[in-house]
Amino acid sequence: MAVETPAVARTRRLSLLRVLGPIHIWGLGVGIVLVGEFMGWNFTVAKGGVFGGLVACWFAGILYSCVAMIDSEVSSTVASAGGQYAQAKHIIGPLAAFNLALFIIFEYVMLEAGDSIVVGAIMENVSSEFSATPWVVLTIAVLTFLNYRGVTLALTVNYIITAIAFITILLLLFGNWGNFFTEWLFTTEIGGKNPEMPYGWLGILAALQFGIWYYLGIEGTCQTAEECRSAPRALPIGTMSGLVTLLIAATITWYVATGLVDWVTLGSSAYPLYDAALNTGKDWLIVALFIGTVLSCLASANGCINDASRAWFAMGRDQFVPRFFGGVHPRYKSPYRSILFLVPIAIAFAYTGLLDQVITFSIISGCLIYAVMPINIIRFRRLYPMGSIRRGYVYPFHPYPAFVLALFVALTFIAIYFGYWRNLVGAMAFYILASLWFTFHRYRMVDRSKLYTMPWPRPKGY
Amino acid sequence: MSIEEVMNYVAWVVAIALLAWMVVDALRVEVTYDRDLLVSSVEGEIEKEILATDEEAALREHARAMTDTDTEVTRESTVHRDQQAPPGGGS
Fold first, then answer.
1. Residues A131, A282, A166, A47, CA torsion sign
2. Using the 8-state DSSP alphabet, how is residue A455 labeled?
3. Closest partner residue to B22 among A225, A316, A340, by Cβ?
4. What pLDDT digit, counting tens, does each position of A209-235 carry?
5. Which residues contact B14 (CB under 8 A, 6 or more apart)?
6. How far from chain centre, in Å, is Cα A4?
């Protein structure tokens, strides 16, 4: 009879399951983001008009192309759970890593709460006798259950519902082919203003903060780096193909929505693509877009649970928060403690029903991640020049994409400041207080000898 | 009571059941498994595996090159010997 020796027993370890391929990464990235095509982006039209919406779409497209390229290079090299957290830990330092983890967690937990609020609101719209609260809690519970049972189940479901939601956008385009942009949309001054650029270039600047709705969350693909069968292959392919999908979806969304709904109605719509489907007068398209709207919310919330839990898990593993949260389920190989810990937080924020506040906090947190990325990649290339370590993907034209990203993020922050300066100041105050807590209290408990695990050579200049 | 109100209650029941199942399962794991085992996951295993694979590949490449060299040397020496051997001779 074989007897396990004590030495073998001591070295036994649990780890996250390595099962994901590029298709799962695509589903995760697009799934989180696609809800932004079904709602939210249309506020660009309220601020910048029809053309302002298009400029914001392209502006955000360039910003996120830079994000995806930079993220693909670093995450295909630092292939660890926590994504940008692990990257910053190895490249910038522990305080930056701690802050990035918080940005990631709040970006995704808030987005999850926002998605579930929308599901509740949709149910109330279906019938006034439906109550939003049970459907909000049910959404979070079901999706948490999927994530608890393992990443394969969660992201396979995500891939399927994301693909269906994307197809509904294509259906709206081809199902109503030839009937977009009727004369009255542009020749009539609806709301007493020219629909093309009602507030000029200042309006377009104000629209930039909502333009990121088209792509917000694509950077979450690298949270599952540790669960990819081959991270250097799956992450760049999944992220880049996801971004291309979103660029197509965003352009189609702008085209069909501005071609079917007047700019004033569109600028204040809760469900712009669904409203566009209503204006076609075709029942099958209306049903398809209703399904697409619900599925996009579910896919987004599902991906958010996945990403937020990985960031919290990674912090737990490094003792930035109690080590307890670095636990892995022995059967499902999921970070089950982190997944469960974030449930009451998501429900609490969803229970407030303050969709605009919740989403604004998510957007600000996302922009803070993008603000650190240029610093991260420039430092990464300086410390570890080409050829010094193995890279799964090398992004082109360095350092220009990093500079473009920094400039565009600065413009977005200016736009956010104009519209939501209180939220911005509040968020910054929160993160500064958290940083003080980490620096003067928590970091003392961290075992620094176990913090840097990458078997890389000594950085250049050290 | 309308069908919508019934569905509201069903949503509550399903949500609470799922959350309760996860909490019970998590508690079962806590009491069944060793605490150190549950938090034994470490960062960087992938990178080490990649490097190990590279190292193995390099070793295989080296071994193949050595084998090829040996074969080449053997072949050359055979050819050399054959050239030196008298035609048709050897026996």
1. negative
2. -
3. A340
4. 899 999 999 999 999 999 999 999 999
5. A138, A141, A142
6. 44
- What is the residue whose two structure tokens read 């910048």? A48
Q: How far apart are CA B42 and CA A11, in angstroms?
A: 12
Examine residue A401 and say whether the peptide bond preceding it is cis (omega within 30 degrees of 0): no
CA A1 to chain centre: 51
Which has the closest alpha carbon to A213: A415, A398, A20?
A415
For chain B, give every domain's residue range: 1-37, 42-83
* Residues A16-29 as b or e (16 or more Cβ within 10 Å = b): bbbbbebbbbbbbb
A19-443 classified as CATH 1.20.120.450 = no
Alpha helices in A190-323 (DSSP H): 200-211, 231-260, 263-267, 272-280, 283-317
Mention every residue, 6+ apart, whose C-beta is less than 8 A from residue A277.
A172, A285, A286, A288, A289, A290
Q: What are phi and psi of A389, to 5 degrees?
A: -135, 165
Q: What are the extents of the domains in chain A?
A: 19-443
CB contact under 8 A, A453 and B44: yes
Amino acid at the residue A183: E
pLDDT digits (tens, 9 = 90+) for A69-128: 999 999 988 888 999 999 999 999 999 999 999 999 999 999 999 999 999 999 998 999
Cα A104 to chain center, whole Å? 9
Containing B90, the helix (H) or strand (E) segment is none
Query: Chain A neighbours among B 25-84 (CB < 8 Å)?
Result: 25-26, 29, 33, 37-48, 50-51, 54
Q: Which residues, in sequence order, are bridge partners of residue A228? A: A20
Best of B13, B22, B41 to disrupt the A interface (most A CBs within 10 Å) is B41
Question: Are B39 and A135 in contact (CB < 8 Å)?
Answer: no
Buried b (16+ CB within 10 A) or exposed e, A283-315: eebbebbbebbbbbbbbbbbbbbbbbbbbbbbb
Tokens read off for A63: 């910003």
Q: Quick one: which of A142, A420, A153, A170 has its CA closest to A297? A: A142
Q: At what angle do helices A151-175 and A22-38 cross, to 10 degrees?
A: 50
Q: Name residue, tokens 């250049």.
A: A460
Are A276 and A289 in contact, with CB atoms under 8 Å apart? yes
Q: What is the pLDDT of residues B35-58, one digit of tens each?
A: 999 999 988 665 455 445 555 565
